[in-house]
Amino acid sequence: MNVADRLSFFPALYNVTENPKVGMWLLYLTIVALSILVYKLGFAQKLPLGKSIMIYIFLAAGCTILTALGIFLPITEGLVVAALILIIYKIRLHQSKKQQSVRQSNGG
Q1: Which residues contact residue 10 at a Cβ distance below 8 angstroms, ignoring those fewer than 6 apart?
Q2: 4 band by pLDDT with thresholds 50, 70 and 90
Q3: Alpha carbon 92 to its chain's center
Q4: Which of 14, 47, 67, 107 would be a feasible disulfide site paired with 23, CB 3.0-4.6 Å?
Q5: DSSP letter string over 63-108?
Q6: In whole angstroms, how far apart are CA 77 and each of 2, 17, 37, 73, 90?
């Protein structure tokens, strides 16, 4: 059985089997970026700078485990789906608030 056939989309895209050093760094950076995006869109609160730095340090540390799992499991793809769902939610929430403010300013 060929290992390259079992890779999920992003590791196959980054050629993890042919160039593992660069491929794994690209996979790690992709997972970190998507994790930060999902965190900011769904869970972030206004925190002091020190606490925010600690959150991002632990987020980056946790992404090392996700990168190892993401070689054969669809971790990155799941983060893409989560980010898309949260982006759609934020857009719809913004539109809903905008419509409510227009209704209130029109008096009804």
Answers
A1: 27, 30, 70, 76, 77
A2: confident
A3: 19
A4: 14
A5: HHHHHHHTTTS-HHHHHHHHHHHHHHHHHHHHHHHHHHHHHHHTT-
A6: 22, 19, 14, 9, 20
Provide the token pair at 20.
Answer: 């593992």
Q: How far apart are CA 47 and CA 53, in angstroms?
A: 10
CA distance 103 to 108: 6
Distance CA 73, CA 16 (A): 14
Nearest to 35 by CA among 76, 69, 65, 90: 76
pLDDT digits (tens, 9 = 90+) for 77-101: 999 999 999 999 999 999 999 998 8
